[in-house]
Amino acid sequence: MAPNREICAFFFEDKGQGDYRCQLCGTPRKQQAGTGYSNLLSHLNLKHPDFEETYDTSLATATPLSSFGFVSEAAKCRYQWLQWVVERNMLLTEVDDPLTRSMSSWKPVSSKALKLDLQRCSKSVGVLVEKELGELFGLMWDGWTHGTAHYVGIYGVCYVRGMRCERLLSLSPLNDGSQDADVHIDMFKRVLALYKKDISMVAFLVADNCATNQRIATLLELPLVGCASHRYNLAVNRYLASYETELTAVNSLMVQLCHVNNAAELARFTDRKPVKRNITRWSSTFEMVCRYKEIRDSIRQVDAVEEFIPNGSTHKKLLALLEQLKKLDSVCKTLQCENTSMADVRVLFDQVADDYPVMASHLRPTAKIVHTPVFESALVKICNNTKLTASELRAVQRFIVEPTATSGTRKERAASNYASEILRGGKQMRTAGAATVSFHELAKVVPPTSNTVERLFSQCKLVVTPQRTCMLPANFGMLAFLRVNRDLWNAASLITTE
């Protein structure tokens, strides 16, 4: 057992004049000099009965108390400021504002110090992400244009602690004046190098089905899982093409209702606002038709738009279309669920293709838009635990796991059934070649969509506002990096990297 003096010096911060603060829970305690350490030790025994184990572990591994999550008051304040800025999408310079400081009970910190903490914390998280990626992982990415900058968000997809893990690796702009495949590949290599990885460790790619992404997969000689949501949106747009006349009429009506005078008149009869169509998102078409049905009776009270109201036959077509859109929207939302697998997507697409033949050209397994149909088919069979063809096995060669070696100890056969055991053993040897191939768990959880990156860009719009256009891309990338990988850092992250 260590001396009481050393234990108390380890767990308590000496504030002077007999005042101490517990570094485990922050409780203040008093202990007059020359009176021993009974008051401090009683606190440890009562509130932290496992303190001896923590102390012994620290001595054995030469690990500071911060590694157990215990940090100084100053580091805790810096962490709270950083947490506030990252999670609430605040300006980095907000911590310098006198009004902000006056409203906070935390000790003030400068924006320069905050940026240093941002860098320290990002470095600490990067080390953890590097370990999680391991030697086999996938890459998922998408692009986002904001103003004159085109950002590319890159995620690493790995299997950690029994589940799929998607870690943001980078969010940075393309500054080469081009968005072709070669520029993207160079960016991938630079990003992977930051985590001491290379392209040879990448087992698959997940992205939209556009020509550039397919070209990237071809050049890298890697299978591409085309985003199922992207394929589905294209298929639904193909289905909606036959209703374009009716949808254009409703959209023209909604545009008229958005005019100031007409909107004021409509507000007298309903609290619902008109919804216009966004040509790039078919979901907005569903919302527009749904809103049209809800407020049609109120619209008829607005005389200025009477000529834009669809007639009876058009109205019936729109109501019939709305029922179909409700079904299609349920599929769209299911595709966005994080637990939706490649096998689930295959079942959904097969049924939708049967019910809506016009959409089959985009949804069938061998559709022209699919870059690597054999690979996707193999992943579906792995999820369903069914037998793969020879070509499918070649496509998922990277995921095949060597069977666990059996012990070399020979089992002693009983004398009474010696012959039968010989025959049984021979039968087992003859059937050994037919054993089921084992695959890496990552193959069962390959994401069928790149919706994770889409959600990232939706969050980014809350950060890069018109008032923050001068934010450096490096600071913007670190803020997004820490926000997405929030579970990998805490107050101790500010200490371990110093």
Task: Walk me through the structure.
This protein is an alpha+beta fold. It has helices at 4-11, 38-47, 51-61, 73-87, 98-103, 111-133, 181-194, 211-220, 228-240, 244-257, 260-267, 282-299, 312-335, 342-355, 360-363, 373-384, 390-395, 418-431, 451-460, 473-484, 493-496, and strands spanning 12-16, 19-22, 28-30, 137-146, 149-160, 163-173, 202-207, 224-226, 400-401, 438-439. The chain has a five-stranded mixed beta sheet, with helices on both faces. A hairpin with a 5-residue loop joins strand 2 (19-22) and strand 3. The longest helix is centred in the middle third of the chain and has 24 residues, at 312-335.
Q: Radius of gyration, Cα only, in angstroms? A: 31 Å
Q: How many angstroms separate the termini?
A: 31 Å
User: What class, by secondary structure content?
Assistant: alpha+beta
The overall pLDDT average reads: 87
For the secondary structure, the number of strands is: 10
- Strand order across the biggest sheet? 6-5-4-7-8
Largest sheet: 5 strands, mixed
CA-based shape: globular
Give the strand content.
Answer: 5-15%
The helix count comes to 21
How many discrete domains? 4
Helix content: 40-55%
Low-confidence runs: 427-435
Protein name: BED-type domain-containing protein
Organism: Phytophthora nicotianae P1569
Topology:
Layout: H1 4-11, E1 12-16, E2 19-22, E3 28-30, H2 38-47, H3 51-61, H4 73-87, H5 98-103, H6 111-133, E4 137-146, E5 149-160, E6 163-173, H7 181-194, E7 202-207, H8 211-220, E8 224-226, H9 228-240, H10 244-257, H11 260-267, H12 282-299, H13 312-335, H14 342-355, H15 360-363, H16 373-384, H17 390-395, E9 400-401, H18 418-431, E10 438-439, H19 451-460, H20 473-484, H21 493-496
Helix pairs in contact: 4-6, 6-20, 7-8, 10-12, 12-13, 14-16
